[in-house]
Write a structure and sequence with these properties.
By secondary structure, this protein is an alpha+beta fold. It is about 50% helix and about 20% strand. The two termini are about 20 Å apart.
Length: about 210
């Protein structure tokens, strides 16, 4: 769950910098750049952890999640060579990018493109398409609308296809990827409907927000 508007007000420049630095560390692990619990990685994770612990927003859930990942890398309880650890770190980095996209003119596309960029750095081939006129989606609904896409892009093994469609009164985010079945979160929000189809190694998730529902 990404912080709400009241929590985002606590994002000082110092916290943004700390989150950005932590994102880079998690991204390295997620991309498989580091396959062993090397000393320099533990030291970098410890510095990132200190930066976040000193931030004036310790109650933000995302910060707590990132701190847990960093603490695991520092202690060695999370092995950077483990595929599960890499997926967790990729998802953590994607969620950070998602949070930092909140202040942009088009946060929905900005956060999706940020997650696509992270997926491509992880070696995933991503196709993206957008069409139609999109109404503005309220922040809380937008985070639910993009939650499956964020998770699937962070955990895809080799491919993903993302489509955003606007129809004047609705916005649909559709994703096809070869993510693990348990990587797709269940979404629930007034005004949002979702469907999931599995075919072989691929998963297709379509989430739609309808204005006024």
């Amino acid at each position: 769950m990404v912080p709400g508007s009241a929590e985002r007000e606590l994002l000082s420049n110092g916290l943004r910098h700390a989150l950005d630095t932590a994102s880079a560390t998690l991204l390295m692990v997620g991309a498989g750049v580091v396959a062993e619990p090397e000393r320099w990685l533990r030291e970098q994770a410890a510095r990132d952890l200190d930066g976040l612990r000193d931030a004036p927003a310790g109650e933000i859930q995302l910060v707590c999640e990132v701190c847990a990942l960093l603490a695991g890398l520092v202690s060695g309880s999370l092995n950077p060579g483990d595929p599960s650890t890499r997926r967790q770190c990729s998802l953590g980095a994607a969620k950070i990018r998602r949070l930092l996209a909140e202040d942009t003119p088009d946060p929905l596309l900005h956060e999706l493109r940020g997650c696509i960029e992270l997926a491509e750095r992880n070696g995933v081939s991503v196709q993206f398409a957008e069409r139609g006129q999109r109404p503005t989606v309220p922040p809380d609904a937008r985070r639910v609308l993009t939650e499956p896409a964020v998770a699937m892009l962070a955990t895809a093994a080799s491919m993903a296809r993302v489509t955003v469609v606007g129809s004047g009164e609705s916005v649909t985010v559709s994703v096809v990827s070869d993510s693990p079945p348990d990587a797709v979160p269940v979404v629930s929000c007034v005004g949002i409907s979702a469907s999931t189809v599995r075919s072989g190694t691929r998963i297709w998730v379509e989430v739609t927000w309808m204005r006024g529902e």
